[in-house]
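Hi there,

I know you've been waiting on this one. I reran it after we fixed the sequence typo, so this is the corrected version. Both the input and the resulting structure follow.
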Amino acid sequence: MQGQSVFISWGSAPSADSYILQRKADSGEWEQVYAGSDLTFTDTAGSWSTVQYQVCGVFEGANGAFAQSDVITVL
């Protein structure tokens, strides 16, 4: 799957100005991969064994709580 597209989408949060999407590959740290107003993002798979995403809304400059995906096994 390395190099292939990974489509991520999330629901809107009422009154959010924008969103922050982060990714954690394997046992690494959370890394911001997107910030903006869209509700979708297309990532490119790396040489990961597992990957997990989390997203939060941004409200007047303050981040809301992150919602996390399940850990996904990469084949």
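Quick highlight: The chain is about 0% helix and 55% strand.

Best,
R. S.
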